[in-house]
# Entry
Amino acid sequence: RNLIYREQRVHLHASAKLGPETVVASDTSIGAKTIVTRTVIGRDCKIGANCVISNSFIWGGCTIEDDCVVD
# Structure
């Protein structure tokens, strides 16, 4: 089991990928070609396109611009 949890009202681009041990809270958007693994993302976050986020805790209300790596 991959342990992927998404609350309601999460906008996940069709090309974005959620990996194992990932939680995404409501009112959060994740852009194109972004990969998220082993991460908790709080409510009302904006994650840009072409990002790689792993092993992280992203607090609510955060913005991560395009082409960022967070590990």
